[in-house]
Fold these 2 entries.
Entry 1:
Amino acid sequence: MKGILISKDLCIGCRACASACEHGIIQIEETKEFRKIIVSGSCPDECENCKDVCPTEAIKIGEGVVSSCQLFGAGTGSASTCSSRNENQLPAAIKLRERQEVLFRLTLCRRCGMPIAPEAMLNFISRRMTQPLFELDLCITCRQQLMWEAIRKR
Amino acid sequence: MMVKKNKVSVICPYCGAGCRFGLIVENGRATGIDYEPDHPVALGALCPKGNSAVELLNHPERLTFPIRREHNGTTRRITWDEALQFVANKLRQIREDFGADAVGFLASAKVSNEENYLFQKLARLFGSPHVDHCARLCHSPSIVALSRAFGSGAMTNPIPDLENSRCILIIGSNFSENHPVVSRWVLNAKDRGAFIIAVDPRKTPTTEIAHIHLMIRPGTDGILLNAIMAQILREGLANYDFIASRTEGFERLKNKLQQFDIIKAAEQVGVPVGDIVITARKYATSPSSAIIYCMGITQHRHGTDYAASCANLALLCGHIGRSGAGIFPLRGQNNVQGASDMGALAEFLPGYVRTNDVKKRQLVAKLWGCEDIPSSGLSVTEIIGAILDGKIKALFVMGENPIVSDPCSSETEKALSMLDLLVVQDIFMTETANFAHVVLPAAMWAEKSGSYTNTERRVQWSPKALNPPNEAKSDLWIIGNLGKLLGLWDTLPQPEDMLREINQVVPFYGGITPERIAKSKEGLIWPCPDEHHPGTPILYSEKFHRENERATFTVPEIDFEAPRSFEPFSLITGRVVVHYNSGSITRKLPSLLRYTPKLELTIHPSDAGELGIKDGSTVLVKTVKGTVETVVKVSPSVRQGSVFMPFHFPETNRLTPKDLDPMARIPSFKDAQCQLIRKDK
Amino acid sequence: MKEIFVRIDRCVGCRSCELACAVEHSRSKTLFGAISEVPRPKKRVYVEYIEHRKVPFLCRHCEDAPCVKACRTGALSQDPVTRIVTHNPDRCIGCWLCAMTCPYGMINREEERRIAVKCDRCPEREEPACVNACPTKALVFAEEQEFSKLVRRETLSKLLPGYAS
Amino acid sequence: MQSMASWKIFINPERCIGCHACEMACEQTHGGISNIKVQCAPVFCRHCEVPPCVTVCYRNAIEMRNGKILLIKDLCTNCGICVFACPFGAIMTTTITRQIEPGKKAHSAVPCHFEARSAEEPHTEHEKPKRSLADARDDTPRERQIVLVHKCDGCLERAEASGARPACAATCPSGAIECKDIAQASSLKRIRTYEVHLVTHLTHREGTSP
């Protein structure tokens, strides 16, 4: 049986894998301040849905005990995976199919204070945009409200 | 499998605007809506209620077979034969024991003209004078006041004509929520430079459209209208040519208004004097002004006088009988105009023939092949009183829900449980149907053909799009068969035949033949006396429909100068956009219910602060008629000293008083005094 | 601050302003160069023929500009001193909220780049190109007082011929 | 009939009466999920011509066709990246519940039956207690919740089938949502400016005797 390994450096916490996983192996737990991606259990053989959908190629599927350097490679922008950095850090070697958690602090809306998305995700978006057109730290509801508030007179 | 898909153009079943839309039917099931941009009323637009039509047609809780309730309260399914036979036998027996007077009939503003016509014919041939319907609860004062002043009690101009108006006075109407399609034409007029004045004790989406909003004290509409008229006279802005050439009775009104003190009136009404002056000047001086009014005017103890004041104001300035100038009493249901035209009212026969006018009455009787017709009967609210007095023993209700729609529900409930026979003919198991001895499942509007008259007097044909579910039958079939069993007629009538009979009986429907309106998408606007008449969109352009062809000013008997004060709170009832009347339909549709799921009482923040209640807390609302528990919404949209409750929920009309307007016999839904008691958990 | 004033009664509808505007906003800045340019230079002033009258329309550079308020990406910005509303094509995403909110219909669409295009009052010139090109002096680039003075003098000359000249 | 690509959706917030008819109509045309949210006035996709959402999508699941920005459901992974790239909040998210069906290919299509949980994302999503850790440890939970990303498609199907306006524009009772060509609409506005403001100015100037 295979298991999933998520690179904590590459993952941006977008939830695409969780909605792609039909077996309930990747779960999302969300509170007001944090988003936690939880991986537990084993994958059926051919399924690579989560790996396919990941925008940052942060998911590897393998078997047995592996070192994360082995899976992601030491020099591929995720070199820091091998050196310990913070609590969000992978151990040097991990037994696949074991429970893993990736924790993200959510950026809060500057207008209403509601959570928006993980900072890593917003950074990823601003990197992909050709130039920063607007500030991303607004929640969807506030963006919707701001769209009309400026225009509507009454 | 081949999918049989076709589109049938039907009339919207909700408000009186009479929008048309295409219902897409696949394999006998409604699946979608197609908008019809070429329809004149709304250019194909539909409000959220209209958009819920498909959900309504496919509703799983529809009544699909006749139900009989036994003495011990259990219900069982019965056959149509059994149900109709039982009703007919019981009605006959009650007629023998107590006389035909002991049976009341409630018609419906939701069913077609043909069905209403046949229903009141059944009641009157059966011998009972007591036939009425819920127009009594919304616009009976308009019918009384406007027909007294002009000769006809209907809207004078079509809705799209509002666009041509240069000044629109909206008084006691919240059309943005109740007739959303009207707002397009008012906004168009505004874009063309019209001045919009709204008079409402609440801030609503309608008052947001207006240039000025007169936030009056509830129940002071009459004083305000008189103050406007007094100001017009004082400034000499009245249209004296029009008054001289086309009206009568002006002197009396003038004498009455001469002593009117505007400063004092402004204080009583609770608006600045300047606003009244601006309103008077704008209304009188614009080339064409319109008045839109609604239940904020009519549902009062003196509703008829208020409606008459609206008519006086229009006559004073000559703003009637032209494009963009007229009176727009917006009607609430898709066929409330038609049901009134068809004589489903206690004092009128079809074509507004007064029941106490013996000569004219006998002409109708001759057409029906009988000798005489019973004279004037009791109104909706009076029928309930008569049941409590033991005078009425049986009630036949077609598509109405009096427990929720009538004032003082506890009395209505008590009355209905006293009846020997209550027959309810409806599409859902309503609050009223729960009391019925026999419940008859009816077809919805798209499941039968018939004509509907909208608020503009536009008679439109709505063809049958699909079959009713299971054993449900069209109202015409039910009444027709019941009439047969009662021995009133021999054949089961078809909608087309019925309309041909209406052409004969009602003069202003004379040219509205089934062939003509079935062909035309736009329908015909009555009066349309003969086959070649194109219809009359604008009334009174040459003459008024009275005997001397002149309009008359009516001077109210009472003095508006002393408004009633309601301490501590005056209770206003009204509507919200996603619900419809007694809510028996809309409270069953989840897609609408999610916007306004439950009853809420709106209160002004400073009143709430005084009582120590906040948004979302529960209060007890207490009036002389009852006590109701509700959730509070704190919002500055109401005036200090008044609270608002929508009447789509059964709780609201447990509170409303039963005082009737002396002329139109409308209950004063909007004149209630209430107390709030904080309920802490 | 100088404004462009319009004397409608003087406009003969020759469309010189439209042409001059398009040329000014071309790369070559010459008429012949502008014609062959791709994308074709767009005009930012419009002459409408209404009821036999010819009326030139220019961006008013409103004081409380609704287009600037509506723009969510910062493509439209207003100079706090000169009140001139400028459009940055790099930031424009073509959402048309500005065109939707402009009460005078002065924002148009550039087909090729699919973004908004509007008057920038010729930042490289002393006097805007349209004013310069107007043969009848229907467009006047002047201070408000100057323009009032001009109108007064004109009225006077109408009343008392020969006085003002 | 105007060609599809030329018209843009114009919304006049002053005309909006907040009746939610557009939401209802959208829901009906799009199988139970509304792509419109009324916040003061209706908010939905502006169909930008240089769209940031298309730029950020890493799977090319958003494309421009006939002047309309379409989300291709087969390619969409519900990652929500486009949601935050939209300056208007016009790409909506709705939490839906899907059955876990082992062996079925993932993200193949949007399920034909789902339960719309809440239109008010993401506010309510965070308030709702999520599945607890104990549940997550459970090997195969019976159903899972997905945050579905969806957006307005300009009723392209309707337009291609019959040339009709989008359902929201067709249903709007007050005429707040309209489809107009930009050049045409601007020209009409200029004419209106003349009619409303300049005519009075002209007649005033010519009519007064100084």
Entry 2:
Amino acid sequence: MSHVGKKFPGTIAVDDVSFEVYAGEVHALVGENGAGKSTLMKMLAGSFDDYTGRILINGKEVALHSPTVAKKYGIGMIYQELSLAKPISIAENLLVGRLPKKGPFLDRKRIDSETRSWLSRVGLDLDPNLPIEDISPHEAQLVEIAKVLANKPCILVMDEPTSALSREEVDRLFEIIGQLKNQGLAIVYISHHLPEIFAIADRITVMRDGKKVATKDKAEMTREEVVQMMVGHSEREFYHGQPRASGGERLRVEALTRKGFFHDVCFAARAGEILGICGLAGAGRTELARVLVGLDRKDSGKVFLDGREASPRNMAAALRLGIAYLSEDRKSEGLALRLSIKENVLAGLIPMHSKAGVYLPEAGSAVLESLMRELSIYPRDPSRTVGNLSGGNQQKVLLAKWMACGPKVLILDEPTRGVDIGAKMIIHAQIERLANEGHTIILISSDLPELVGLSDRVMIMRKGHFIREMAKEDCTEESVLIAANTDVARPAQEVAHG
Amino acid sequence: MKKAASIVAFVAMAGICACGAFGQALSAQQKANLEASLKVDTSVLKSADNQSLIVLSSQKKVIPARPADPDALAETDPLHWYDMEYAGWNAKKVNIPQSPADGAIGKKIILIVHGDHPWTTACTLGAMKVAQACSIKLKVLSPNWDLAVQNQMIDQAINEKPDAICLIPLDAKAAVQQARKINDAGIPLFLFNTLTQADAMNYCVAWTGPDDFGQQRKLARVWADEMQKRNPGAKELDVAYVQHAPGGSPYFARCWGPMSELSGYAKTVKTVAKEAPGFDADKATQVVSDWLTRFGPGLKGIFAADDSAQAIGIFEAFKKAGRTDIVVCAAGNSKQGMDLVKEGKLFAITYQTAEGDGALTIKTAADWFNGKAIEPVRYLPQKIITKANVDSFYPPQW
Amino acid sequence: MADQAIAKADARSTAQGRFIHFVNVIGIYFAALLFVLLGFALQAAGVITNFASAQNFLNIVDNVAMLGIVAVGMSFVTYSGSMADMSVPTTMALSGIVAVQFLKVGFWPAIAAAFAVGLVIGLVNAVVVGRFKANPIIWTLAINYVCMGIIRVVWVNKQIYPDMIASTKDVSQAFDAIYRLEVVKGLGGNPLASLRLPLVMMVAIVIIGQIVLSRTSFGAQLKLTGSARKAAKFTGVNVELITGAAFIVAAITATLGGLTVTSLSRVGAYYNGAGYDFRAVTAIVIGGMSLSGGRGSIIGVLGGVLIIGLINNIMTLIGIPTLSQDMIRGAIFITVVGINAKSLRSLGRDDA
Amino acid sequence: MTTHKKLDRSGALSWVDHNRIYLIFVVALLVMTAFAPKFFNVFNLTTISKTAAMNACVAIGFTIVMICGHLDLSIGTVITLAGVVGLGLKKYVGYEISVPLALCSGALVGLVNGLLVTKVKISSFIVTLGTMTILQGLIYQITGGNSIALSTPDAFSVADFLGHRLIPLVTPRVLITLVLVLLFQFLLSSTRWGRNFYMVGGNKSTAWLGGIEADRQIVVAFVLSGLLAATGGVFFAMESSAATRNMGDNSLMYVLSATIIGGTAMSGGKGGVFRSFVAILALEIIYDGIILFGLGNEVKIFLAGFILAVVVLYEAYASYRHDRVVGQRSELLAELSAAGRGNRSTDAASSRG
């Protein structure tokens, strides 16, 4: 199996790229958002019927005009967005399009046994008849991986497969990748996460602006070089890590509990401080944020804002109190993709820009103008539809929306997930600026360099408990990671005392 | 549960056997029952509008000979509608059960109407009044304008084995199979209110109800006379018809009935338009407004199939256009219609007794139980209501 | 930067975005104009007469006034992303019959009672669809059934007449005037051309509706909710409240429509308002409002209502039987929506 | 390994939830048997099955469309159209040809619906609303507002045949419906082709990526819906020996309610043909009982709305609850209950002390 090559003259998303992957290798594909990685791979998976250029598998030219055809040629793809049908059972999702048959009818027994064996392959023990909507998101991610593996592909494309997985699950996945590689599969691995890339890739291809920059063996490259190829400068130089003079206590959380999600969480944050919250997937970070802004109801505990108890009943109340939350899912929870930049940025200010019920969007023009400039939102035309912007700019619009509200406490949940490095740097600069201006920032992030680089303090969450607080001096990517992975049997309070 | 059901079944069976044991000859008890039944006087009953509840049409309907192929005649020829208008008169009755002639008292009748409507409520009330007077057990079923449900109710009614079934068929044509089914079960059937296809008449003891065609023809003459009076010497009187909802006999009787009548009676009357806007006042307003735009002052008369919503809509349209010269007649006997007659807007309407309709079918069944000879068709009286006599018809039945 | 590439595509799409706006709002009036021209052409060809008269145009708008009132309210529901309020017919019937019943007390109590009933239905829909996110179509359909059952059970299949129930003749005349009141008499010197209350109400509701939708914070939040419910929720919009409010608006206009239709037919009965659900949806969709929410305008809906009025008028003037008109109406409906969908799809937004 | 609580994955409640419609059916049957006069006998039960036959047949196709995540509002008019075509052409070509033609007319309407939904990409609600309106006009155009009846002996013999009782509860028309229900239930649950409908409704892009021709599947669903609505309509008309202009008008709301009550979700991907069938039977039992009790349509309408409302409300509430607890961690809950037990025991200890 060798040599996949294709040309796309004139196309904007992917421009005249040749790319090859050999049997028995893990080929990493890296690049900023919008660099064309995903588009390139979707062509391979048969998602487009109007690509130009040629694709060759095993030296023979093939026309991959539909997913069926691509599948026939043994191409399997794990998508960034889950491609599972929620009301349908795990088994049928896993074996979609090729449910085992006995004669003309389905072979229930084989469906069950086959599903179970593939699930156990990725470390899941679930009833194959459960619908996807009844399992948790990271279980679903594993089912997604199992689904592609079950197709026994000879070329496997993975687009950000680890974004929803915990450390253990990532390790397990890498183990599987290793096995597959030894079986002679060609694996394309797309990720923003450079440590992962360097952990498993054999060769690395860097893309930028829809063009290929270079393909090299891992041994010939360093992380810095890769980053430089992606953006033209190093990632490291960005985090200044200047200590900030933080003010008095702004937010205090006492024994906050939402049953089954997080228990007895206590912490305090000062004005002008960036408080990082670190934890693996499912540690309860997002759930904590949701309770703080009133999206979910707490079961017990107290929250104080500037010394006054603050338990908002809904997001609107939270906003009035001055707590805002930038959610991790910008496409469905963050932005109204069909509306314009202006409408999105000013969305949080509707009550404030209204007099006696009359909405005056012009009142926000100045704010809008300055935010678009500060965040260098591109294009600069506020009437543009947000859905047509690049991921990075969408994320900037989302941040701008909350900056416009000027909250006392801003909770950022994965503020740079899936964002290219250029946008990431702008966003980081703005976060630091907000803190310097005296806003309290609670930063939830799985991106350890970001978390460690930006935060003044880091709280470690594990399995629904706060287990440790680390000061800036003690924080390194490694120490935080180790802390987040350590099982602590004691309740959080004792840790706080210790 | 099952036990209870079987007991019920057993008792029913026992009852049937017991009845059978008496054989054909009337027992003394039956004779007494018959005598008591014959003594019942239903002529004292009144409907809500203070009219006598049961009045048979005094005029004898003249039945012409059937043309060879009525469909071949023009729609404006009265005989085109022969099969519909004279349905039942020439029926070749099939397997009609013999009357037990043992008196109506204590008999059980199932009355199946077509659907819920204030008219139906009044009709049912009339039927109940007679049933009460005759000591008939009456059960009323309403299928809510759903043919499938009406079929179901017929099945249920057959299962209950009543002494007779009275039915307003939802559809003139579907009535044939319905009537056959009831006939097959050996239950006497009395159709009423809507005219059915002629074949259905073969399976029923009798049909009762308004002579829709005859009545509309009568109304048409009054209408034409008034138009001619208001437009003396006019060579052409343009008229339009607001039709009933398609499907039943009123759709035809209340449009082509007058139309075919006037083709002979008043040749100057010319039909320029007909529409079936349903029974929404606002849709009738729209249609009539557009007619006024289209035909202008030439339009001299409108005949409506319904004197409530449609009539109201017509006069709203007139008001907007400032027209008062158009002669409007309508079929029906609703409160709104009578009010419009009283106001002098609507020229004439027909008297349609809803209670009388329901009453007549029960009365006919009672007569049959009492062993009287039943003519195949019984009409309700024909009356035209105009401003002159409208007061005597208040209060309205529904 | 890849952004520049996107910007190029985006510039193109902005031009198309304006085109969409054109199709959605101006386009609908363009279509209406086409029908007017068709009418002129038919008149010139001698197929129809008197189409081009002030009286006829007044008739056209007069005849769709009630539909307009109901459609504008329901379009709030559509705009909020809840597709349609199928409980409109019985809301109309129930509020109408309750009003007639309360004429015994007086005119204003009757109006108040009607609105109280409408509000209760709206509130129930608001809670169930807004708060518990029940499927709006199915839920409102169920409520439609339930209300129909209530009317039938309470009034036992009878219909009631305003003049028989009203305490005094004045009261029943006042009720009669809801449909018949001439707000402006003798328009342009023509004693017959006058503006009646339903038309005035429709115009007022259209103006209020358009202002509410485009100029108030409620409208802005409704747009956000309709475009992206979850994002709106995460932006601090009380989406439950906003969605619920849309249903209440629909219920209020349905009550107005119910009062008008009851006043017109001079009878309180369960069948008043039948068919207004689908008629309103048709007007809304022809008017360019997207069933997926957040797109369209009240002015557009008015255009849709007017087009329906024009089609009806022209077809009756030609003399096409009402029931055959359905075929043409249906075909026009699908064509208009198809064109709309296609123009949206050229932008990759197949959400019409 | 996964550590999440298995939500509603077992337990009586979940079982009840899943088999809701069968419970409603059994309860309705028991209540009516116990209380409704003359309910539980062969005649009456046959009446029920006969009445249910048409709508049950229509519900098959409607359910398939709904499983695909779409809605077919045109079924009512397709029923009428099929009746009109089937009976109207009989005198020219006989039932042998007119019935297939009637079925084809239904399938054709379905095809048009399907193509407009998939190719022009208009929401199915709108498309089928449009075809519904068009068909209303078309039927009027064909019939001139008149019903079509056949009163020839051969038509009567067909009608009698379709309506006669083969075995208790089953007439030939019921048998046709039963066979179709079982056939489609089987196809939908046990063939790849059938499962594909669920996949398309569950997530169209998953289906597409899985190599399922989603658009074709949707078109097939609409064609089936048209075909089965026509089947229900034409056989009903044949048994009545008449096709009326509005015989299908009441079916849409009825079938829609039954399908929802049966547990097929409007969002697609869930449900089943057999469930809809049982729902129709359950409703029919309730309606029949209402008639036997001597209650009027007002009760029936109210109850129909009430049942539908309760089911919709329950489902909305269930998903509202589901959203609240999805993702709960079992070990945290375990910890909590352990703590609770601990507290209680210490309380007990202190009170004893």
